[in-house]
């Protein structure tokens, strides 16, 4: 390559459009954590395609210096991710119980009745809206994954198969009227066009209506080393400071916030129109002040996370290597999205895990993306009687240990990888 050609290449590289924040549009350059290359975490591989090539994309999270949104670049379209989705919410009994408790609370809080309309965005298989039906409250789901939406429709839950945004909001408002309640559980992170999504919420919401959004809290992600919750299907990661900025961009306001234990530590935020009569609670200002005191307005606060993640990877691999050298058999429990980030980033394949198991029939018989670990039914654990069971959906560890504590009968133990490697003897575990 001559000098002139090399210069041309350098000049061309410098002209590549920098990543712009999907919320505020600022140039984003600061790394939050780089997890290398990884496949889409819900792209489970059918056995007849085990020898096919699989696309890998950078799993490199950045943080915006203006609105402090932690984010991934959009390498694949939502249509590609959600055309056929493998996650069905109803296979987690604790999550369904969480949804039922929310329903009972919000019906009373907002005095919802037969004249109201409750809408859920990314309504999945109807795990939440099904709880409104016995109260006679009209509901409407919006779910982009057609295979998942059909399950909700069979439950009698009206469901629109589409990606929510201004266009869909205008159509729904015309056909069904505006909503008293709009709920969005673990959807905000999966929206590449945040501004279109939140603008749509504003269109669909009644003047005195309430929006509740649940999402993993960035503070908990960082403090508890939850790097495996970062994957391509999750485009964004939020602090309350960022949520406040997002709401204000769309003439909405924060009126309440609750800290939840779900998904390793989540926030439930309540939003209303700026001009509504809703007044912010003290909990909003208290959490905003806490995040500020923790340095969430300082970019340097975000920079130390990467080294923390690297240390965790080394410790987990050291533990697994030692266990295998001692002749121990190890299998996994679960095949969640977060598990596939962990497996691919740490390089944990069949040399460590015999297989993993899952309750979701859709995943059974398939292989985990990237690592190609077979996914079997739960009774496979009883058949092989492994020494160690690696819990991949660690946020459900109590539920899983309660269901599977009988592995202690043959001396089996559980391994929880996050925030640090922990071995749990089910015979000594108290719920």
Radius of gyration: 22 Å
Share of residues in helices: 25-40%
Helix/strand/pairing category: alpha/beta
Describe the strand arrangement of the main beta sheet, using strand numbers: 6-5-4-7-8-11-10
Average residue pLDDT: 91
Query: What is the number of helices?
Result: 14
Percent of residues in beta strands? Answer: 15-25%
The largest sheet, given as strand count, sense and whether it forms a barrel, is:
7 strands, mixed
Task: Compile the SSE list and pairings.
Elements: H1 3-14, E1 30-38, E2 57-63, E3 70-71, H2 78-82, H3 93-110, E4 118-121, E5 139-142, H4 146-154, E6 159-160, H5 166-176, E7 179-185, H6 194-204, E8 205-216, H7 218-223, E9 236-237, H8 240-249, E10 252-260, E11 266-273, H9 282-293, H10 299-303, H11 305-325, E12 330-333, H12 337-346, E13 356-357, E14 375-376, H13 379-384, E15 388-391, H14 397-404, E16 413-416, E17 422-424
Parallel strand pairs: 4-5, 4-7, 5-6, 7-8, 12-13, 12-15, 13-14, 15-16
Antiparallel strand pairs: 1-2, 2-3, 3-9, 8-11, 10-11, 16-17
Summarize the structure.
This protein is of the alpha/beta class and 431 residues long. It is built from 14 helices and 17 strands.
């Amino acid at each position: 390559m001559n000098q002139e050609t090399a210069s041309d290449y350098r000049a061309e590289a410098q002209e590549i459009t920098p990543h712009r924040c999907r919320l505020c549009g600022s140039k984003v350059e600061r790394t939050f954590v780089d997890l290398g290359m990884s496949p889409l975490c819900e792209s489970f591989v059918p056995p007849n395609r085990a020898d096919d090539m699989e696309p890998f994309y950078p799993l490199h999270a950045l943080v915006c210096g203006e609105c402090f949104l932690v984010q991934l670049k959009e390498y694949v379209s939502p249509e590609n991710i959600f055309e056929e989705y493998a996650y069905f919410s109803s296979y987690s009994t604790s999550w369904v119980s969480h949804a039922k408790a929310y329903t009972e609370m919000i019906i009373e809080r907002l005095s919802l009745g037969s004249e109201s309309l409750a809408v859920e965005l990314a309504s999945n298989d109807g795990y939440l809206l099904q709880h409104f039906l016995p109260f006679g409250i009209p509901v409407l789901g919006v779910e982009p994954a057609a295979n998942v939406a059909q399950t909700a429709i069979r439950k009698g839950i009206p469901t629109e198969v589409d990606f929510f945004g201004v266009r869909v909001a205008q159509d729904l408002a015309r056909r069904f009227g505006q909503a008293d309640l709009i709920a969005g559980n673990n959807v905000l992170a999966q929206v590449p066009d945040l501004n279109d999504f939140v603008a749509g919420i504003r269109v669909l919401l009644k003047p005195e209506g309430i929006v509740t959004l649940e999402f993993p809290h960035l503070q908990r992600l960082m403090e508890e080393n939850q790097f495996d919750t970062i994957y391509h299907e999750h485009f964004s990661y939020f602090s309350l400071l960022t949520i406040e900025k997002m709401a204000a961009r769309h003439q909405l306001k924060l009126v309440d916030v609750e800290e939840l234990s779900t998904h390793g530590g989540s926030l439930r935020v309540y939003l209303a129109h700026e001009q509504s009569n809703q007044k912010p609670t003290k909990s909003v200002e208290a959490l905003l002040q806490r995040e500020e005191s923790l340095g969430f307005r300082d970019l340097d606060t975000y920079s130390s996370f990467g080294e923390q993640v690297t240390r965790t990877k080394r410790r987990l691999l050291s533990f697994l290597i030692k266990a295998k050298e001692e002749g121990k058999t190890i299998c996994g429990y679960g095949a969640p999205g977060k598990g596939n980030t962990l497996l691919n980033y740490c390089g944990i394949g069949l040399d460590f895990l015999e297989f993993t198991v899952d309750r979701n029939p859709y995943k059974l018989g398939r292989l985990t993306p990237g690592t190609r670990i077979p996914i079997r039914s739960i009774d496979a654990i009883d058949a092989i009687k492994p020494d160690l069971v690696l819990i991949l959906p660690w946020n459900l560890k109590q539920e899983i240990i309660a269901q599977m504590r009988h592995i202690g009968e043959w001396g089996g133990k559980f391994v929880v990888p996050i925030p640090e490697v922990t071995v749990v003897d089910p015979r000594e575990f108290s719920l």
